[in-house]
User: What shape does this take?
Amino acid sequence: MAEYLSKAMAFAQDAAKLSVRLSEGLVDNALDFGLDTPGSFYDHAEFRLGQTRRELNSGSEKERLAAMKRLLACVAKGYDVSEYFADVVKNVATGSLEKRRLVYMFLLRYAEQEQDLALLSVNTFQRDVADSDAEIRAMALRVMSSIRVQAIGAVVTVAVRRLAGDSSPHVRRTAALAVPKLLRLDAGLREELQAVVNSMLGEGSALAVGAVAKAFRTVSPQQLPHAHAHFRRWCAQLGDADEWGQLELVRLLAAYARTQFARPVEGSRLDTDHTLLLQAVAPLLHSRNRAVVMGACAAVSHLAPESQLHLVAKPLVRVMRGSRESAYVALTAVLQVAQRHPQVFYPHVRSFFVAAADAPFVRRVKLQVLAELAAAETAPAMVGEVAAYTQSPLLDVAEGAVRVLLRCAQRVRSATVDCFQSLLLLAGNDQRPPVCAAAMRAVRALLLDGTLRDADSRAMTLYDILCFVARSLDKFTADGARSCVFALVADFAESRFGSQHALDVLRAGIRGFGQEGLEAKMQILELSTRLYLCAQKESDGVLAEALKPHCEYLQQLHAHVFTLARYDVSFQVRDRARCLRALAPLAGYDDALVETASHVVEAGLELLGSSATSNPPACTSKHSTGYTLGSLSQAVGREVSGYEPLADWPENPPKNVDRGPQVSVLAAAASHAQPIAVAGISGRAGRADAGYSTPRSTADDDDLDAFLDSADDQPAKRIVQAQRSAVVFEQMYSSSSVDSSETESESENESEPEPESESES
Assistant: This one.
């Protein structure tokens, strides 16, 4: 039995070795038999790199072609195969069109890394620039412009000038895209490149017009008047260009409009070309490309009057529902628009509610947007949702919800009391120090700015609120929350609560002064100074009358807390103590200052009172509203290298400017607005019968069109459109039924009709 098993195992091992040899042989011989597929190149490319160098230098055309396919497969899979660059350069001058394309793809990938070796093939590239194949001409120019060696800048410039007027739009597009590369290589070529780009401004192909716009913005950013004669044609080409060409055209046209048109004022009529641009950009808001949507939203928000800003709301919300990076960029744009015109996003407030799957940077901006959208229209849907966020285990969500509740309380009078009670209970019951501190800051802000006093109804008096806050002092562990308690007592020291309990709160703070945080220590010092100055004040105030029996005790507390502050470990506390002690000198300690103390009591109280509202809680965003919408600077909140801001509207815009022939087709398309889908756009651009050679002249149809264009009632429009559709359908149905009945009768009567009957039918 054991001998049988050993023979079986040996047989199995031999069979396995034989199968491996057979598979290796099939892979090696597949090229000769023509069985090697593109999939096999991609799957096994990295395992056969050892023989690639030999195949590249082989005399067999098939082996060299297979080696190039294998190298590009490795590049696609992320492997670094730049060591074969020298061997690939030897194959530049090849007669095979397929292999030449592969060689150019490889050189294009590693031309910047191997600049010296790439220079060896410049002569071949110069010959290929004049090749009969447009793809070879374009790829040769791409490789030449990617070699970042200043010595060949003049050679590449000559090639760009030559191919700028090529018959192929693909080659002209490549020539335009080579212009920014040359400018980065040698800034001294700017004037020569400007002449080349100016000659390309009349580009009529939608494939190349976007690249020309990119080149023009790069070499001539301040020479926008050169685009006068091409403005209307570019507006007409906007819907036909490729997606990245649309983005470049929109940016160029927006920069042009900000220097040539007057600022749009609500109620005034826009320039006809200004209106043409807005109509051309509107379909791009429905593009499938998020970058195009952001560019269109930027153009509308910076160029359109306020009444048209609602057009950007739905596109931005749609972009926000993509990846989290896209959501962040869209949310920063929403935030910038909402800071100036929050009413645009009121109908979409639920789209900005925080979801469990949101990234931290996304939910942070969402909460900032909700704070900007706080209004009477959004409060019913927002307050309950945001109040639930305060119980979130995520601290950033809870703190952001506190700021949103504060903004709702400040802006919406009907929600002030509910928001304040929620914040007060959160401050007294929450065990998380950062959330408790944020809630206390919000409570203090509402009490100081008079929001709660102006509310419609209050269930608690100021005395009750301060008593609740003072009783919660022992539960507070956060430095920010405890400092707010001492600050509130100091702010309302002249009230009924201050006259009865301010001294007790001060004593509680001095008892644990050494264990308090930095903010709490400073507020204790200010509270002690305020009470001491009020006691020294010569008036009949409520607080002064209440403190007169305790003047000696208050003086001892004041001296004790300033002695503790004098030797505190924090230099900020020591500096604050020295400043406040100059305002309120102590008898027996600062005799030199006591004589002038009466002159500074009023000034000291006024100074301490002015600091009560000097540091309100921050509810606004850190993102600046001055950057161009959709730019990197706007997304990160600071100006980055390469940022080009839009120019301010001119005070005296130029008049009687010739911007090319009138584009009546585009104006009609924008006014009638039927759905189309061009270059990835699912928008509204033209009538269904715009291309008919026979015009419609029926009076009834013209009257209906005029009525539909002028009617403001949407239900009336839908009724008229439904009636028209019903009439058309009835006509089609009656004609089809008549034709079918005639056909049936003819087939029943005779099988071979006479010529006369055929002509009659």
